[in-house]
Amino acid sequence: MKKALSLLLAFCLAFCLAVPVAASSEEAGSAVDASEETPSDEMLIGYQAYEPVEELDIDLDGLYTGEDYGESLGDITVAAGETWSVEDSCVVDSLEIEDGATVEADFPVIVFFSESSTVENGQVIGNVQFVSDYDEVVAIVHTNDTHGFLTTEPYVKGLKTQLEQSGNYSLVLAVSGGDLYAGGYAAAHVYEGEYIPYIMAMIYDYYTWGNNDGGITDQGLGTYFLSILSQESGLTPLLANQNASEDIDMVAYAESYEPAVGAEEFVDLYSDILSLNEDGTIDYSAIDLESYNLSAGDNALDDGVIVETANGTLIGLFGESTQGGSITDAYFAGGQSTITVAQNASDALIADGASAVVMVCHTGWMGADSTEASSNDTNSAQVALKTTGIDAIIDAHTHSVINDGEGWLFDESESDTIVNQANCKGEAIGVLYLYLKDGQVVAKDSENLTTNDDGEWEGIQPDEEVQAAVDRCYDRLEADGYTKVYATTEYFLNGERISSGDVGGGVRANETNLGDLVADGILYTAQQLWDGDEISIALYPGFWVRSSIEAGDITLVDALSVFANPLKIYYAEYTAEKLVSLMNTSCAKMGEENNNMYQVAGLTCTYDPDTFEVTTLTVGDELIYDHGEYLVDEDWTVGCAAEVGGGDMTVPEGTEIVASNSEMAQLWCEFLENGEYTIYPDEVAPAGRVTPAA
Q1: How far apart are CA 289 and CA 273, in angstroms?
Q2: Tell me: the pLDDT tens digits for 102-156?
Q3: Mean pLDDT of 642-663
Q4: Which end of the chain offers a freer environment for a tag, N or C, measured as fewer CB atoms within 10 Å?
């Protein structure tokens, strides 16, 4: 499987699509002991050149389908005469050449072959595509769920530029699958996301909204306003399934808008479209804001666009976000069927002349189970299976690495759709490839590029202009005191959804070391601030732990990245029965993603590893529940510091302890600076707070 594929290899392979690479006969002879009758043309496998052979003969028993997509094909026999193409979705263990010599290849290879009676151009066997004849290639660079983590962005632009300059592609685009603003790194929300479109417009051509992109300024309306600025700067939003819930007057909104970065900095960021009036207010006259006004029911953004390749082929793109509306506030709403909207958008683009259709979405990949046609979900797999005309889906939302970054090719669906997602937070850069002949797609492929073990993007030069823009944002954070160090950790603090890639699991699946530290800080803070009843425990949904923290210094930026969403901490009082009920909800899917799982402090809990029901519950040193028996009186209660956004947790009115996530981040840093706590290693249930019963 291609997982550690270097970018240099990727470029070598892409280069061989259009330009045959020949090695000297001496080089070729050192690699393969071919017969004198072997043709002189040569093909590239990885870094080494080998002479081609005569005829194609494939043992189909070596090909895999469905969930095995991307698995090794084993030994491939190539008879005399043909070169054979294995797309970069699989590993060839060895190639057997005409005279019996074997070429070892423990990396994926792309080798294109000429016409053959065995396979047809563009044919899919298993999940391997065979391409012998094409006249152009479209490349779409993509990211998703960056959540304000900006350090990869210079490399995204650098990769786009290098692909453009290679001359191998008739069109190169860059798109984002959304969740650009809130829900992650502090740069996205400390300044209400105002640096984000400034940077994104330097890189991307199109993007869609994510479910977190409404959580800034005046929620969705602020995001819409920033999307207008980015659109005026050349970045086009795509969102076919979000409509205005009420009339929106952007002229009035702009007049009332107070930039978090300050008017002068705001105007300087968007100097191509904005200027200051003499009285220091912002002059919006260069923007036709009235054209962005919306009536209730109007589409918030574009239904779709068509772009033209250098060969004159028309490529259609449209966007969608999570079903039911990801921008969950008073201004925008979804509620339209993801599949129906996708089919309508695809049909409209094809009717307008598009030869290929790409969906840029924030709907999510739910794993191999979601590829079953019987599923009722409306994730990207179901869109691929239940629509026609969509060639590729660039997905987001679930922070997925699909088939080790190879994407999923639905070769049995009517439209042969390929789906890919590039992880999250800039940890991967995806590239979608569409191979076309006479304006029609004959094959498609995708890959995710990642850093090497030293965290370097091999073969990509970062774009200097984008790097300067990113540095500008980080320098502002430092100047405003957000990089002050409050504590240090020798361990990776695990805020990953499900798995940290190590032994610690994830905050939505089990107790983690960061979950413990967050809950401890909330409990400590609440005990300092609350002047009412005693608080003994804290419950905080792992869903709202929005970022991990690397080993090293812990700053306010890190804290704001952990507490990234606008939330509050409340006082709640629970009976033993209610507390057991809450912990049953929390333990219902141990080891799997559960948005209602709590990270806890002040209590310990064991659960049945088979049924996941709570077996014992201890508050402080008091065992209050043991295998179905309550050991305290019915009027027993416990004071709890709680966040209301998970499970069936409810809080009475007037019990607010901490008013906002930004305040909680600051208070958590003060706890790290002054409180007593333990930082545990990155292990499952490091403090033993939520564990299976013995």
Answers
A1: 12
A2: 333 333 333 333 333 333 444 444 334 445 567 899 999 999 999 888 999 999 9
A3: 72
A4: C
Give which of 57, 136, 126 is closest to 98, Cα–Cα. 57
pLDDT value at 661 more than 70: yes
Q: Crossing angle of helices 153-166/464-479, nearest 10°?
A: 170
Strands across the sheet with 418-420, in order?
305-308, 314-321, 356-362, 392-394, 418-420, 408-409
Work out whether strand 569-575 and strand 275-276 pair parallel, antiparallel, or are unpaired: unpaired
Structure tokens at 508: 């939505």
Helix axes 661-674, 513-529, angle to 10 degrees: 100
Return d(Cα 315, Cα 312) in angstroms, integer.
Answer: 10
Q: Pairing between strand 637-642 and 569-575? A: antiparallel
Instruction: Please give the Cα distance from 512 to 50 (Å, whole number).
Output: 50
φ, ψ for residue 146, nearest 5 deg? -70, -25
Amino acid at 132: S
Give the C-alpha separation, 419 to 363, whole Å: 12
Tokens 């070596």 belong to residue: 62
- For residues 562 and 518, the answer to whether their CB atoms sit within 8 Å is yes
3-state helix, strand, coil in the chain (%, to 5): 25, 25, 50
State residue 317's pLDDT score. 98
Answer whether 277's CB lies under 8 Å from 296's CB. no
CA nearest neighbour of 689 among 610, 598, 613 = 598
Q: How far apart are the C-alpha atoms of 392 and 380, rounded to whole Å?
A: 10
Distances (CA, A) of 392 to 10, 124, 140, 387, 389: 20, 15, 10, 12, 9
What does pTM read for this prediction? Answer: 0.74
Alpha-carbon distance of 360 to 241, in angstroms, equals 12
- 419/408 Cα distance (integer angstroms): 5
Under DSSP, the state recorded for 228 is H
pLDDT at residue 617, as a whole number: 98
Contact 442, 131 (CB under 8 A): yes
Compute the C-alpha angle 494/499/501, nearest 5°. 90
Residue 570 falls in which region: left (phi positive, over 0), alpha (psi -120 to 50) or beta = beta
pLDDT digits (tens, 9 = 90+) for 169-218: 999 999 999 988 876 677 777 888 899 999 999 999 999 988 877 655 44
Question: CA 416, CA 610: separation in Å to the nearest integer?
Answer: 40
pLDDT digits (tens, 9 = 90+) for 38-70: 322 333 222 222 233 233 343 333 222 223 333
CB atoms within 10 A of CB 453: 6
